[in-house]
Structures are given as structure tokens and as C-alpha cells.
Design goal:
The protein is built from six helices and five strands. With 179 residues, it is of the alpha/beta class. Strands 3-2-4-1-5 form a five-stranded mixed sheet, with helices on both faces.
Length: 179
């Protein structure tokens, strides 16, 4: 199975440096984010996708709708693709990183997930995806999720190195998932 994994386009919260894992918040693509998604859509227009899988956060759906102009395939929400539940909704990302600095892999804040909790959730999603019959799938998710995909598919990345992986908005990777 060919899978294409992409981070969503730039958002107003990216500009403000804020955490978001609540789909009810007004987090949306900026003009730059829309342009990034349009550019990615052109780059991927000749790839034949069977479906597009997105997280429950609207920015992934908004990105998917732009890419789907060339594909007209079903867009499905997959709860397991949600961004890490940081426990810092609407607060500064820098403050979140300070709050987990004592144990960045296992620290949970205000009922949120740790980085390793999130990783386990995404690995479960990959296991589920491997059981699907699709030929080509586009996944639009988040930087934290992309880090897990990169570590899983490219290998050689320790858990302590996950935060060192940086993925730009609408950056995508192509992987083959054995069946």
C-alpha cells in the first residue's frame, strides 16, 4: 500500500504559537496555509488516491478539501490521527515545552497525553492502516504525528530524537506499507 503522509497547512494558531487539540476551537488555515495546500495539491495532482484520511481537527479537513479538488475521493475522519492531547489548549507551545521539560517523553499535563502515549496511538493507527485494502491513501495530520510516521518508516530514530524532527506545513512523505 502506498501512503502519502502530510502535515496540514499553516494556521492562525501556528502564527500565534499556541497549542490546539480541541476541534471546537477556531483554528483555520491562513492565506499562507491555503497557498501551501494549493501548492501541495498541484504536486500530488497525478497521484491516484482511493481516499483521504484526516484528524478530527478542522485544519486537516480544510487542507484535504483543497487537495481533493484534483481527486474527488472520500475524506474520512480518523480519531487516532488527532494531534497530541497536550493539556495546554490555547496556551503557548513554548510554555508546554517548559512544562514537560523534566521528562519530555512521559510527562502528562492536565489529563493530556505524553509523547509516548501519542506515539502508541499513532502506531496503533499504522497497524489498522496495514489491514486496509487501499492502494493509495493520503493522510493529513499534524507535526507530532508526522514525527511518528518518519521514525516508523525511516527507522534509526530513538524516542528521545522525536522532538528533533521538524516537518513544515504541507510537507509530505511517501511510504510503502507492506500488507
Amino acid at each position: 500500500m502506498d501512503i502519502y503522509c502530510m502535515r496540514h497547512g499553516r494556521t492562525n494558531y501556528n502564527d500565534l504559537g499556541l497549542c490546539n487539540d480541541d476541534p471546537c476551537q477556531n483554528v483555520h488555515l491562513t492565506e499562507i496555509g491555503i497557498a501551501q495546500a494549493e501548492s501541495a495539491a498541484l504536486a500530488l495532482k497525478d497521484v491516484v488516491f482511493k481516499r483521504i484520511l484526516v484528524s478530527p481537527l478542522p485544519r486537516t479537513r480544510q487542507t484535504a478539501e483543497i487537495l481533493n479538488r484534483f481527486h474527488a475521493v472520500p475524506i474520512e475522519i480518523c480519531p487516532d490521527l488527532a494531534d497530541i492531547r497536550s493539556g495546554f489548549e490555547g496556551k503557548a507551545i513554548a510554555d508546554y515545552f517548559r512544562a514537560i521539560s523534566a521528562d519530555p517523553l512521559q510527562m502528562r499535563i492536565d489529563g493530556g497525553e505524553s509523547v509516548l502515549d501519542h506515539k502508541r496511538r499513532i502506531l496503533g493507527f499504522i497497524d489498522w492502516l496495514a489491514s486496509q485494502k487501499d492502494e493509495n491513501v493520503l493522510i493529513i495530520a499534524h507535526e507530532e504525528t508526522m514525527r511518528v510516521f518518519i521514525a516508523y518508516f525511516e527507522g534509526g530514530i530513538e524516542d528521545s530524537q522525536l522532538r528533533d524532527i521538524h516537518v513544515g506545513n504541507c510537507e509530505y512523505r511517501h511510504y510503502v506499507l507492506p500488507r
